[in-house]
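hi! just following up on the protien thing from before. the input was this:
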Amino acid sequence: MNFMILNPINSDHVKQISKFSAKIGKELELLEFIKKAQENQAIPDSNNIYEIIAFCTDTVIYNLGLIQGTRDNKLMEFKIFNSSDGANERNRKFLDYLTNYAFQNLNAETIVTFSNHKNKTLELMGYESLGMDNGQFTYVKDRERIEVVGKGKV
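and the predicted 3d structure came back as:
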C-alpha cells in the first residue's frame, strides 16, 4: 500500500473514489468534493486548495482524505474517511501523513478536522479538542514553531 494524490480529472481515480464512497455510504459528499476540485483545477493560480489523498493499493482505497483550504490564510480542513475494518494503526499513519503533507506541501498554518465522537488518536497526535458543537467535536492543530531566544527555546 502507498499514499497517493488522486487527480479529480483522471477517470480511473474518480472510479476508485466512487467505488470507495459506495462502500462507506458517502457517495454524495465525495462526488460534491470531486466536482469542486475539478472546477478549481480549471482556475489558474487559484487561492483555493482541494486535494484528495488516498492510502491504497493499485485498485483498492482503504483511507481517503479530503483537504480543503485557502492559500492566503493557510487554513486547511480535513475530512477523513476510513474503511471500517478496524485497522487503527493504518488509520493513524494515514492521519499522520495527511497532517505532514498539509504542513510541508501545502504550507498550512492551521488544520481543522471534525469527528462524531471524542477522538483520542487526534489528541495524541497534537490536535486540540475545542469541544462539541452541533453534534461534532472540533479538533485544531497549529504548525509547531520553535523560536530560539538566547540560549533557550520558546
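Residues 88-104 form the longest helix (17 residues).
The helical segments are 11-24, 27-41, 88-104, 120-124.
cheers
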